[in-house]
Structure formats: C-alpha cells, structure tokens
Amino acid sequence: MRLRAYLLPLALLGLLAALPLLPLDAPRLLPGPLDSPGTLQLLALCLAFAGVALSYDLLFGFTGLLSFGHALYFALGVYLPAIALTRWGWGLPAALALLAAVALAVPLALGAVSLRVRGIAFAMVTLAFAQAGNVIVQTNPGGLTGGEEGIVLEVDPLPDALVGVVNTRNLYWLALAYAAAVFLVARVAVGSSAGHVWRAIRENERRVEVLGLRPYPYKLLAFVLAGFLAAWGGFVWLLLVGVTPEVTTATFTLTLLVMVVLGGAGTRFGALLGGFLYTLLDYRLRALSGEERIHELPDVVRVPLSEPLFLLGALFVAVVFFVPGGLASVPARARLLLRRRAAGEAAS
Amino acid sequence: MTAAPALAVSGLHVHLGESHVLQGVSLAAAQGRVTALLGRNGVGKTTTLRALLGLVPRTRGTVEIAGEDVTRLPTHQIVRRGVGYVPEDRDVFAGLTVEENLRLAERRGGRARYELVYDLFPELEKRRSQKAGTLSGGQQQMLAIGRALLNENELLLVDEPTKGLAPLLVSEVAAALERAAGMATILLVEQNLGVVQRVAQDVVVLDGGRVVHEGPARELLGDRERVHELLGVHGARRR
Amino acid sequence: MSTFVLLTVTGLGLGAMYFLVASGLSLIYGLMGVLNFAHGAFITLGAYAAWWSTTKVAASYEVELALATAFGLAAGAALGALVELVFIRPLYRRPVEQVLVTVGLALALGALVFGVFGADPKLFELPDWVVDTTSVLGASIPNDRFLEIGAAALVLGGLVALLRLTRIGLVIRAGVENRAMVQALGIDVGRAFTFVFALGGALAALAGVLSGVYYGSVDPARGTSLLIFAFIVVVIGGFGSIGGSAVAAVSVGLVQQYANYYAADWLDWSGAGDVAVMLLLAGVLLLRPEGFAPKVAH
Q1: Residues in C touching A143 (Cβ below 8 Å)
Q2: Separation CA A50–CA A260 (nearest Å)
Q3: Contacts of A218 (CB under 8 A, 6+ apart)
C-alpha cells in the first residue's frame, strides 16, 4: 500500500519529465508535436497552474478559507523579480532572495490582519488587499510596474538555458519541478499535525477551539504557505509569459477558485488536475475560436463558442451542479455506481 | 366516526451531519388530544418537530396530517394545512414589533384571531408597537404561542414553552395551553412534568432516536420508578 | 472651496451608484446568505440593454434616455429572477455551491457580453442639459451628478417604504432575521428570494445605466469594477441593512474622491483614492469585526 502510494506520483512524474523527448502528436488537443516549443510552452503553463491551483487548494479546500486575494501573491512572483532584474539591474540570485523574503513577509502581514475576521468578511478583506495590489500595478507608481503595458523583462541576468524559444524544454522541466515541489510540500503539510488541524478547522472551527487549540496560528500558517508557493508559480509564469497586469485582477483569483472546484477541492490530485485542464482548455478553446469553421457559423453559436471564458464558466456551473466533488470524485462515484449495480443484480 | 389521527409519523430517520439523530421514530397524535413528547436532553425531541415540518431534511419515513401524506411537501405548504409551530427558542423576530410579528403569521383566506390572542395575553396588546427584541423572555414566549394561535390551526407543535420561565409565568403558559387544547390537537415537548400532568392526556417517550414508551399520561406519571428509568428524573411532584 | 464642493458632489454621485448596487447585494445576502458575484453581470447587462434600446428607437434624447432606463431595468429584473429560479433555487441548502455558481455565471456572462458587444466602449448619447454644468457655491457641477444622486435618493426612499409598509417587505425583514421561521409560519420564502433577486437585478441595471450617464459610455468591465466597491460598501454597511448601505456608500464615494484629489497631489500617484477605500474597509473590519453582524433590515 505504502509503495503504491508513492508509485503513482513517481510514475506520473517520470512520464511528464520524458514528454519533451517524445515526438508524439496529438492534433486538436495540442498545438503541435509534443517536442515543439509551442506545445511545451502550453504544457509548462498547465503545470505551473496545476501547482498554483494546489497552493490555493491548501487554503480553500484543505483549511476552508475562502480567499479572494490569492492573485496578489502570484503577482508578487511575477512583478518583484521583473522589477528587480529590469528596473534595478539586480542579479538573479539577489532577485530570487528578495522574492523569497517578500513572499513570506507579505502574506504573513496581510494574513495576520485578514484572519482576524472570518467567513465572508475574510473573503472581502483579502479581496480588498488584492484589489489594492491591482490598483498599485495599474497606476504605475514611480514608473515601476509599467501600468497597462507591463514590463519587458531584462533577460541578461538570466542563465542562457532559460532564455529563448530553443530552451522552452528547460522551462517545461522547471514548471514540472515547480508543480512537483508544490505537490510534495502540500503532501507533507497536509499529512503533518498542522494539516490535521487545518481539516478540523474546515469541518468545524468552533470544535477546534473547544479542544483547546487556537485556530488562528494554524490558519496563518496555511495562508503564508499558500501565498509563498503561489509566488513561485508567478516566477515560473514570468519566465514563460512575461509581465501582464491581468495576473493582479480579481477575475484571476476567481479562475483559481474555478480550477480547484473543477478538479475537486480538498484533494491534491484534483487541484493539480483542475489547474492543468483549465489552462489547457483555456488556450485550446482560444485557438479553436480563431478557426475558419467557427467563423462560418451563425452568430448565436459563434459568439459563445469564441469566448473561452464563457465555455469555461458554463462548464464550471455544470460541474458544480452535477459533479459536486469535482473531476477527482468521478472514479469514486463510478465505483460506487458499479458496486450498487452489482449489489442490485445480486439481490435480484 | 373513526377519524385518522391528527398527526401520524412512521419510520422517521434524520441524519444531521454524521450523527443519526432519529432512527425510525413512529408516533401518532390523536385528534383533539394533547400528546406530550418526552425524553432526556438530546434524544431528538426538537429534531422530531423540525423534521415533521420539513425544516431539517428527512432521510426516510412518512408524515401524515389528518390522513394526508405531507412528507414531500415544502415547509410552508405543510404549515398551511393548519399547523401552528411554537419553536424551542421562541424565535420571534426581534427587529419587528409585536403586531408585525403577528401580522406576518396571518394567512390568506383564513381568519386572524387577534381578539383570542390578546384575550389570552393582554400584555401583548399593551405592547403592540414594541420591538419583540425588547420583550422579556416570558413575553416573547407569549408572542410565540400567540403567533401559533392566530390562525385556526388544527394541529399545534409546541416545543418547550416553559423553558427558563419563572413559576408564575409557567402557570400562565400552562393555562394558555389548556385553552388551546380545546381548539386543536397538540404535540407538546415539555420537560416540566407538572405541566405535562396538567395538560397532556397521552405521552410518547424518545430515547436514542427511537420511541421507547407510548401510553396514557396518567399511567406513566403515576409510576415514579418508570419515570425515573425513562427520563432520568423523579416523579412529577418532586419537579 | 469650489474644488471641495465639486469633489463632494462627485463623491456623492459615485456613492449613489455604489448604493444602488450594494442595496440589492445586501438584501440578497441578508435574506439568502448568497454572496452574489453575478451582480456585476446584472450591472453590465442592464447598461448594455439600455444602450442597445437607444439604437433601436429614434426619439428626442430625453425620451430615449427614459425608455432606455426602463428597458435596462426590466432586463436587469428579468435576468435576476431567471438566475434565482434556474441556478440558485436548485442548490437550496448548499450555500457554498450557490456562491460558486454565481462566480461561474459572472465569468460566463461577462465573457458573453464581451463576445457580443466587443471590447470597445459604447457611447451613451445624452441630452445637452445632462452634460451641462450648474454653478453651486462657485463650483461648476456636471448635471448628471444630480441625476445619480436624485435616483439613489428616490430608490432609498422607495426601499424603506417597501420594507416598512408592504407585506413582502415584512417578509423580507423577517427572513433576514430567520428564514426558517418565516417558512414555519406558512410563508413561501422562495417567492421572496426571487423577488429580491429581481429587485437587486433591476437596481444593479439602474446603476449600470447611470454609470453610462456618468462616464458617457459603457464597457464590458463596468460591472466588475462597480461590484468590487459595492462589496466593500455592503461589508462596511452591514449585510441586510439598507440604511447602513446608504451611509457606507456615501462614505466610500467621498473617501475615494477626496483621497484621489488631495493625496494624489502630494503622492504624485493616481491610485490613492482606490487604495484609501481598501484601507477604510480593512480598518472598519478590524476595529469592529462584529460591526456588520446585525442582520436586521431597516
């Protein structure tokens, strides 16, 4: 049993690591052969969001904290290194050290404040802080953030292996390493004694208090850990895509929520799967909407089909209605259904 | 005429979270009589009333009112069949005035018996435009009972109406229940065995989510040992 | 002095729109416990419906504006009722899923508007007197501000009268306190749910139309940006409280305007107004975390 528990993740990791070496083709699903830069970049994004979604799930799924401000920490990882490298001319190690420090300090400070309230009030305070971050980025104080245009990243301080289309494969492996690291950290954290308290808080915070534990430090720990992990996802995004202010918006946080619920909140594989699939669908649907065949359709069909966010929003509503546990719950549901059917046959 | 019981419950199961609170409760309240639902704290008396009304989801079982199956109806339609409910913690609307609380209970097509309510509880008439949240506990209880009596209900579900009241008020509430008993069938959850003895003819005792005793009130209350065994309290006179 | 007057009236005008959005959100949350993210779509759709109707009618600008407002309100109310009946009602007793569904609807409807009308702002054609200014205490105030403030004041009066004087108002006030007990009195509380959603949709649409008047145009992002401030107003003002929403809306509008002007001056930064509002929210919540708890509609 113990071996099997490790076998599956390891096999998956091995398979994903080998992907860039395989000249396989999956038309429709992917933009090109597996080893082409376009496909690898998309898959790298999917992996990065799998990790970010899991970091959000630590808050939402495992601890029951509905935050609407997770985009802020992701955006820290996008903007801070970009500013340090481009505007201040720092080297990469210094920029990353700064990110590590700030990605701990900011969620610690804001979490300490917002966790003084609960439920909807907590959601609103996190939303307000993230929105303040959005305003700061959009208004370009001191010419630092570049406002609407974002920042054109200075690539000189980066190692050559991470720059240029030919090295997309390395970025893919970096994204995979990130997702794997988040998975590992999440696994250790959820299995730790703090992880047990998180789930107890999710089920019933009052009962945790009755047991004589203060939920506050545990919630703060989840908040800081989730924020810290998300920030590194932001850094991976920075290398893959660059700097755009859309990563600071409330809509971006909402998409993280959608990913987690789609895959299955409170499950590690569910969140990873949700982040991966959502990103893949988002990009592939966007490509689909540009196709000739879509343009020839009548407006009533064409317009909804050419808006990926419409389709994803609709899919999300359908999952909430019909698959309450998310995609991760499908195998268990199927098993249950089969068992019931078998039991029914045995009875008759 | 052998009328169907005013209320008949059979095989009622309720799960709240992970706990199986009601495990097949079956009971009947005979037309025109007062049936007391007794049991220790936490055996599911309040849940039984709430489940009858559809306020908590039922896993299994049926509920019939005057011979009609109402199991699948939503709460408000069950209530419109002539059910008055006096909840455990009074649950009057604190931000509404006494009169607004009563007006809310009015039903279309029915006659609102304000004269009866104000006759039973003159205190309420005096405080008509006072916010219910500023009433004393006893006054709130009167309002909660008055609200259930405003309509010509056939069946009253009354949950611990004397809880936390001073002895004088307990007696006033008991008198009101006696008068209500002349107008409707009552299912009464009550810890005060003195009140039970005064108003109830039948008793049903719950334990562990099941019915463990049914019978005439006088028979059970007269048997102090049985009362102690079923309810963990001494006979009526000891209170 | 004249600047201060202009800022104050403009702040009140913004506050008026926040109030229109927040009052519906607040009633919906107070009565049903649903934080309605789709409210932003009600705003945007109401504004676009109004704009669309002006392209179909040729009349004087005044008549067009009146017709467009009526049409926008009707569209908002219909959308609100539809969302409640189709998406919220089947998820009764699953509050988290209800919020998630409104999130999905917000994304999907927002994308749909974007797809149908495009990213470019649509211009609102306005009567001259709306665009003209009136001199108040030495300040030239654009007349549309009075339109927004007047509409919000009318709505405030109407809502208070509705809650105080009508049967449905009584049911809503009682339901905000304890909706299970309302049902136990034989009242179909589901009808009140649909009603507040339709009412909230209409008020959000009105805010959308007025924002079109205020900015002179409407764009797909309008709903989201108004919604965030409306959320803040609801939290500061107290869920389910109309009076609280009104006071909070005015405070938020004024703080935003004053900070934007005075702080921007010496910080040389245009984001000061919005950030000041976020800080106001954080401050209010932290000083009185229970401050928004009283769930009584007044």
Answers
A1: none
A2: 9
A3: A63, A194, A197, A198, A201
Q: Which of C91, C235, C271 sits opposite A124 (nearest CB)?
A: C235
Burial of B122-153, coded b for 16+ CB within 10 Å and e otherwise, reads ebbeebeeebbeebeebbbbbbbbbbbbbbeb
- Cβ atoms C213, C16 nearer than 8 A: no
Contact C286 A128 (CB under 8 A): no
Q: What residue of B is the nearest CA neighbor of C186?
A: B76
Show residues of chain B in contact with C296, CB under 8 Å: 94-95
* Cβ atoms of residues A315 and A308 within 8 Å: no
pLDDT one-digit tens code per residue, A64-121? 999 999 999 999 999 999 999 999 999 999 999 999 999 999 999 999 989 988 888 8
Distance CA C210, CA C149 (A): 10
**In DSSP terms, which residues pair with B158 in a beta bridge?**
B86, B188
- Give the helix ranges, DSSP H, for C33-139: 39-56, 61-83, 95-117, 128-131
CB A112 within 8 A of CB A222: no
Q: Give the burial class of A212: count Cβ atoms within 10 A of its Cβ; 0-12 exposed, 13-18 middle, 19 or more buried.
A: exposed
Residue of A nearest to C91 (CA): A321
What is the interface size between A and C, counted as CB pairs within 8 Å? 125
Q: Which residue has the tokens 């030495």?
A: C138
Across residues A304-314, what is the average pLDDT? 88
Instruction: Decide if pLDDT at A241 tops 60.
Output: yes
pTM of structure? 0.88
